[in-house]
Amino acid sequence: MVILWVLMALAMFSMVLLPVFRRRSTGIQLVTPEDPDAADPADYGFLRQEELDIRMPGPDDDLLNVLDVVQRTQDYRAASQLLAGTEIEGETRWQRVQAFAGAASLELQQRPGGVSETPGGQWLRVWRAEAPKDAGGAAVHAEFLVQQAWRTSTPGTDDFRIIMEEARSACGDAALLSPGDPIPYIIELSVARGLGYDQPEFEKLWLKILDRAPSHMGAHLAALHYWCEKWHGSRETAQAFAEAAAARAPQGSLLAAMPLFAVFEHLPEVNLVRSFYQSEVVTKAVHGALYAVHAARPDDPMLAHVRHLLVCFLVRGERWSEAMNQLVHVDGHVGALPWTLSPDPASDYAIYRALAVAGYEANGGSPATLSH
Q1: What are the tens digits of pLDDT across the range 188-228?
Q2: Contacts 24+ apart (CB under 8 A), 39-43
Q3: What is d(CA 205, CA 10) in angstroms, rounded to the nearest whole number?
Q4: pLDDT tens digit string along 283-300?
Q5: Is 111 exposed, middle or buried (CB count within 10 Å of its CB: 0-12, 13-18, 19+)?
């Protein structure tokens, strides 16, 4: 089915608005939505592309409600209260810190301010000024600086280093305000990658995180970047780090999916060959991730991250039914890898989803046979 991947590549490059595929026993072909034989994701209750939420990997109504209040009123207090009531060691607080920081950073990008205009993200500046000892606000500020460095400057430049050094100092301030909190150190993992900490310095930082939250999936994903070939490690060291995390993962932990993320981080720039995604290395990593998903708590905040990456690998491996089983759990939110690497996450996700539906139906599947 080489034609499948050729069509997929063409669809991605042309940024198809509403990708729909015809399911035939002779193969899968790109067609218009009006084609009477087109596979329709809506038949499975999936949302239209324009309705997909690109901000988050999965639902967090409390966060979305608070974000709406903060951005509408420019009052930080609802954000402060939400973080204060969120478990320090958990994944949810880390995701919420990232979300608030990202919202402030995007606001600033959209409204840099001027003579007669208040810059975007002003609520975060007020938060730090009015509540300098608020640990949540300090963490959000540190993450905001990290995101600003990556968003507005180039690694290796003076501007990048200046912002990252400021972020490093902000991480230290946040850590002092909440001694048992792993988040300031998790934020510093990105600083370590950007500033090029040597390995002993990085290991020292990593041990501080393990002391506070040894099974923190978000921390492991952040650390994995440092060990990747494109930064300060290699394919082998990244894989070894991921496999070690999976081996020591407690029952029910999504750390068993870490090898799949290591494989993803080292994918070739362009690889649409089916055999690669059905190779032993990829198959083993996919099975580990499927096991992790099956064993995890249904409310684990990192579960959607693993499911989204599985969709990518399962579709590329033409494992249509398994891909559909993941899609029914994540559809509606696409703020996760691999979609967030695209300029149009919803479009990329919709292409993979349409391929999964078409492949599923080409092999006898239907809405009636798909378990929810």
Answers
A1: 999 999 999 999 999 999 999 999 999 999 999 999 999 99
A2: 39/354, 39/357, 39/358, 39/361, 40/357, 41/350, 41/353, 41/354, 41/357, 43/357, 43/367
A3: 44
A4: 999 999 999 999 999 999
A5: middle
